[in-house]
Amino acid sequence: MNKRLIAIVERYRETLGFEGELATSNSLDSLGFDSLDRATLLSEIDREFGISIADDRVSGATTLGVIDTIVSEASTAEEEATGFVDLGLTSGTLWAKNNAEHNGKKLFDFDEAIGLFGDQMPTAAQAVELATECTHEWVTENGKPGMKFTGPNGKSIFFPADGYTWKGGPVKYDGDEGDIWTKTPSVNYSATYAYNLYFDSGSVYPLNDSNRAYGFSVRPVR
């Protein structure tokens, strides 16, 4: 069940006096939701997920499993429309399906990435969350090796191993490793370093320290 949905329902636990484990089979009646509570719940879901659930789709007999399905269907429709995927991460961060490009370019030094994509770039904390809350598997998609991250809700995104450049030079290790810039400066080295998510066929490092002159990929979030 979607973690953000569970968090919303959990906020009612104390006021409703429900002490059991939440399960998809729980109906809103069994959890103690009256009609006013149900309306408030739908409003919170609308705000959290950016969807609108019609009142006639939810009654006291509606289970959390049904609501979870409604949320999942809405999330899938949003992914198709926006290109961002809800992996079910605790923070609610949505990751883009594909790496960013600009005028056909795929690898950017840090300052260039910040200038072009800025707030769309993940923080180091979001990179850590992706690496720790998702499972990951080295796969090949459309002839390109890379890392597949699968979230707690079973949805996944693929990061191609596009290699890197150094000070605008030729691409190195294309097909062997991938690096995704975060927008977080390094706290371990000088101001010329920043954090990136690194991966190869056998490992994932979400807090790799790299010189800002490297040309890495950018994967937007929101």
Tell me briefly what this model is:
The chain is an alpha+beta fold and 222 residues long.
Secondary-structure-based class equals alpha+beta
Strand percentage lies at 15-25%
What is the molecular shape?
elongated
Compute the gyration radius: what is it?
A: 21 Å
What is the domain total for the residues? 2
DSSP strand count: 10
Give the rounded overall mean pLDDT.
Answer: 90
The major beta sheet can be summarized as:
3 strands, antiparallel
Indicate the topology:
Layout: H1 3-10, H2 13-16, H3 35-49, H4 64-82, E1 84-86, E2 94-96, H5 110-117, H6 124-133, E3 135-141, E4 144-150, E5 156-160, E6 165-166, E7 177-185, E8 193-200, E9 203-211, E10 214-215
Antiparallel strand pairs: 1-2, 3-4, 4-5, 6-10, 7-8, 8-9
Helix pairs in contact: 1-3
List keywords for this structure.
single chain, 222 residues, alpha+beta, Non-ribosomal Peptide Synthetase Peptidyl Carrier Protein, Chain A, three-stranded antiparallel β-sheet, 10 strands
